[in-house]
Amino acid sequence: xxxxxFLQKSFQYCSVAxxxxxxxxxxxEPSQQDKFSMALQxxxxxxxxxxxxxxxxPHFSSWSGQLPQELEGRTLFRNGxxxxxxxxxxxxxxxxxxxxxxxxxxxxEGVTHxxxxxxxxxxxxxxxxxxxxxxxxxxxxxxxxxxxxPQSINTANTSLLPIQGELWAMWEAGTPYRVAQSDLxxxxxxxxxxxxxxxPFSAHPHHDADRSIWNFGDVSFGEQAAMVLxxxxxxxxxxxxxxxxxxxxxxxxxxxxxxxxxxxxxxPMLRREGVTYMERFKWQASxxxxxxxxxxxDLSVVTTLELEAGFSFxxxxxxQVGNELVINLCxxxxxxxxxxxxxxxxxxxHAKSYQAAKAYQVRVDLTRNRTxxxxxxxHLEFVQFDKRFVSEPSRYxxxxxxxxxxxxAEFDSIARIDTDTGLRDHFSFGQHASVEEPLFIAKAxxxxxxxxxxxHTWLDFKQAKTGLAVFDAKKIxxxxxxxxxxxxxxxxxxxxxxx
Length: 499
Hints:
- Keywords: Iron, Metal-binding, Oxidoreductase.
- This protein has helices spanning 3-22, 32-42, 121-129, 336-341; strands at residues 56-62, 64-65, 75-83, 85-86, 89-90, 98-106, 110-117, 159-163, 166-170, 177-180, 186-189, 206-207, 213-218, 226-232, 238-245, 255-257, 261-266, 269-271, 281-283, 289-295, 301-307, 311-321, 324-332, 358-365, 370-379, 381-384, 396-401, 413-418, 424-428, 433-435, 439-442, 452-460, 465-472, 482-485, 495-498.
- The chain is mainly beta and 499 residues long.
- The chain folds into two domains: 1-30; 31-498, Methylamine Dehydrogenase, Chain H.
- It is globular.
């Protein structure tokens, strides 16, 4: 290199270095908030994860169409991650936002909506500090405080259980928070007793046919993999509990109930070193998945059965006929939805190709300890069923689906899947919609399976508005009976309750 050229390049380098020292923001790594803002400009679907900073005061929106009379005066509640940003920092995993409960009060004329953040210990502490203080389940923050246990980072952001005029706001690994149904005021954590204080209580409790409640909490630590099983009365009082060893560490989100058994699905997710809970799981397909079947009478493990490798968040209805168990769930061929898609939601990772969940059925021959599985043609998530038929043979599973089955397409429709025929009845809200979990409400005075209504919310990310719709569950493709849209949008959530 010639001396003059060398000096010129050196001068240019020194000028850049001097500029960098004087204006470090020009050369700094973009913040998570900046990354999200840039991604949102390119992909409006990310609006569902932008988050909120304040409660929402009551707002009325009128119906288009007519609400069935028997639903007048009733209320839909929905829970989900609401606060995604503090002090310029953003969470990177969808699971981590602070819990925000939406209340939709139905009347003949329309819907009154309001929403509030659940005042968990974490939310209160971080509000006072003006920043995130703890790593989330899947997100890292700057200068984190050490946690004393799962309750330190409990966001109460996943689902809701109506109990005696209250809502239990639940998260995967902490004690539920009590919230008033009337005004969404937080009343503090549920007290299960000294022995169960701080023990995880999962976000997916299930009612049995007698209305008692089953649930679990993963208490695995070190080399020991285990969970606590809960059996509660319909009023939420603890009837019994038991510590049960697991065959190996895994990620368990939900389970299902038959008249005799509790059934858990263990995907091949091994534990490894990692800062956050989610990054500790490693997918290892060669291990295959397992079904863990537990006797409800004495909470003993009946058997553990091997299945092909797969992943699942949610179960539908399950039952037993003779010596055969029939189990319905939403099944993914791998765990990319959790480890990759949800873990990088702020960068638009969800727009990349991945294989969405499909309706899946496992049949277990209890005599021979053999299984056979059927993957149906239809995508299905956030599955629901007619709860009058819990643990009884049924054919209809309700949930969200995809109009055109592309791997990276948005869940834009609600659907009924007939597991006997494989047929789907659905309604699409269009290419600019992200549809959320529909809840099934049985029609008064009707006894046949599926005679009822579906109620759900959806986000129109092009217009930046959230809508609510009510369908006849037997005539979904006919379109909504009643529908309304708020003049604002709400973050995409997970699960809800109808009271």
